[in-house]
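Milestone M4 deliverable, item 7.
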Amino acid sequence: MGPLKLLGIALIVAGVLGLAYGGFSYTKDTTVVKLGPIEISAKEKERVNVPMWAGIGAIAVGALLLVVGGKKR
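Output delivered:
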């Protein structure tokens, strides 16, 4: 399997997951207070929304790469 086919499959999977879940979240540590050697930090949960057009576009580009990657030269 060529690299274009692998990239195409990865884009299709990412596009379907983006449409199914609508985004993803992650946790980031931030320093709230720092007084000399004492440091107080907090964990913040962030959410990134994936637009519908980005999911559909990833599926379309992935399908195109599968078609192009499948042709023999």
